[in-house]
Specification:
The structure holds 2 protein chains of 2 kinds. Helix content of chain A is 24%, strand content 21%. By secondary structure, chain A is α+β, with helices and mostly antiparallel strands. Chain B is 18% helix and 28% strand. Classes of the chains: A alpha+beta, B alpha+beta.
Chain lengths: 86, 204
């Protein structure tokens, strides 16, 4: 007959084993369905602006207090390059 | 060389030089910084300015990081911080070939600081250049003196045929414009010859 302690120990072991399998499989950690090439984007991307710049319509984007939206590039093809310096 | 170092000459400067794609569509290059650590602030700014990049966004806020990146690539245990990410989106609302906000390219790597993206960039440019421009619009119509003039959008490497008709019984070629990606001024010096003239631009 199993005691409550051994049952708890078994559940913790089983949960750890399932988590290990999950990580081993390379399973997604954050989001199940990202957008892929060929999909239609359904959200107006928003990034915190970093530099002072002016778009073709004369709208001035100042650092820190403005947001760059995908819609700011209407009529163009937008090439985004996500990077870090190191 | 980094992804930025390779795409600045091959994407940013390439499309700046031609003022857009082969179909005349402007291309915006947006660098997206994923590094929130303020210790890298000056280094990142110097890096971007060294490449002449003027549009840059940060993919982090005071409370979150990589929210936009994660819309396109899911971190995994094997690649917990996917980067760089190359993303191309069609923002032309009335293209006859592609839908508005169509994700044209979404490719990510695991690091990639020394990766040679030459072949990938060639593929991306083919995809970018495959987006068809909307039908050309005649704008800026006016009568300087007895002439009639208007503006049409040029297309790099393409011919636009400008035609007119006085009564829709047939179209006559006014001029052929083989151009660059820039507005082209069309002037009809013989406009008063007919009581009415209608104009159109044909892209053969």
């Amino acid at each position: 007959m199993k005691t409550a302690g051994s049952l708890r120990h078994f559940s913790v072991f089983r949960a750890g084993f399932i988590l290990w399998l999950f990580l081993l499989s390379g399973a997604p950690l954050l989001r199940a369905q990202p957008f892929h090439a060929g999909d239609i984007l359904t959200t107006n991307l928003a990034l915190q602006n970093r530099f002072l710049w002016t778009n073709d319509n004369g709208q001035v984007f100042t650092p820190s207090n403005t947001v760059i939206h995908l819609s700011d590039f209407e009529g163009k093809i937008a090439f985004f390059m996500f990077f870090d310096v190191w | 060389m980094s992804g930025v170092g390779q795409t600045v000459p091959a994407i940013l400067q390439w499309y700046q030089r031609f003022r857009g794609t082969s179909n005349g569509i402007p291309v915006a290059y947006i660098a997206v910084n994923m590094e929130p650590n303020t210790n890298y602030l000056a280094q990142t700014d110097a890096f971007l300015r060294g490449y002449g990049i003027r549009i840059c966004g940060n993919d982090y806020t005071a409370t979150s990081t990589n929210g936009i990146r994660n819309l396109f690539v899911t971190p995994t245990a094997l690649n917990p911080n996917p980067r760089p990410l190359f993303l191309v989106i069609n923002c032309v609302s009335n293209s006859p070939s592609h839908s508005h906000w169509d994700v044209l390219v979404s490719e990510f790597y695991d690091g990639g600081g020394t990766f040679d993206f030459t072949a990938r960039i060639a593929n991306w440019r083919n995809i970018i250049d495959s987006v068809q421009a909307p039908p050309p619009l005649i704008t800026g119509a006016r009568f300087p003196g007895s002439d009639f003039e208007f503006t049409i959008p040029g297309q790099r490497g393409r011919t636009n045929r400008v035609e007119f008709t006085p009564g829709f019984s047939g179209w006559t070629t006014l001029t052929n414009v083989f151009g660059t990606n820039a507005p082209v001024l069309i002037r009809d010096t013989n406009a008063p010859a007919d009581p009415h003239r209608f104009y159109r631009v044909v892209r053969p």
